[in-house]
Amino acid sequence: MKWLSKFSKIVFFLLLWFVPMALPAHGRLVFNVDFAQDGRFEKLRAMEPGETVSVDIYVSNVPKPGLINMGFILEYDAGQLEVVSAEVDTQTWDLQFVDTSNPGQIDMSGARIEPDPIFGMKIKLGTVRFRGLEVGRSELVLLERPGETVDDFVLEDGAVLDVEIRHGIVLAQILCRIAGDVDGSGAVDLADGILALKVLARMKPDGVQPFSDANNDGRIGLHEAVYILQKVAEIR
Q1: Is the pTM of this model over 0.85?
Q2: What one-character-per-residue DSSP string does the chain give?
Q3: Bridge-partner residues for 160, per DSSP?
Q4: How many other CB atoms are found less than 10 A from the CB of residue 224?
Q5: pLDDT tens per residue, range 109-135
């Protein structure tokens, strides 16, 4: 019976080889944002309170036969950001739905009728425009839309890819800060310059605001001291 045992092993290895090739393979979706509308993806955007920023949301690595619909919840900190506008990309999605009535969440979905389902890289989902409210940091988190019967990111062959965002994906962060306002007084003045110089001298002063750096490197140092002094002297 040795020949039978050997035959069984051969069949087993053939199954391991051919079965995965026969099954449809679906890649892992990748989500990103473009703040500058320049085609480059970013993870952080800094702005002043009162400023606005546009957030273009993209999905990449979409396998064939392509998506026929998409949908998600975009979660943000309503204490830090205010939604100015939100829209599904009309060039990609024939049918669109947007709901911004729930503070801290944006519900967006779209479907394709014509042309054919879409696949590949850098597929635009939609755009949200935020206004900064308070100094602080807000994550932009992509979540699955609620409901057991709600399926989004569905391929033409019926494969549902919602599992990709089931536990949430942090797309990026928006940092709302007053550059150079090291002491958090709401204005940039000589006191901020003195505080920055103390930090530079490693004196570890109290009251340093972590979001006040001027060059978005997350630190208070020489760049901030120079920036503040130029600001006070009205060189900037």
Answers
A1: no
A2: -HHHHHHHHHHHHHHHHHHHHHS---PPPEEEEESSSSS--BSEEEE-TT-EEEEEEEEE-EEEEEEEEEEEEEE--TTTEEEEEEEE-TTT-SEEEEE--STTEEEEEEE--SS--EEES-EEEEEEEEEE-SSEEEEEEEEPPS-TT---SEETTS-B-GGGGTT-EEEEEEEE--TT-TT-SSS--HHHHHHHHHHHTT---S---TT--SSSSS--SHHHHHHHHHHHTT--
A3: 154
A4: 27
A5: 999 997 789 999 999 999 999 999 998
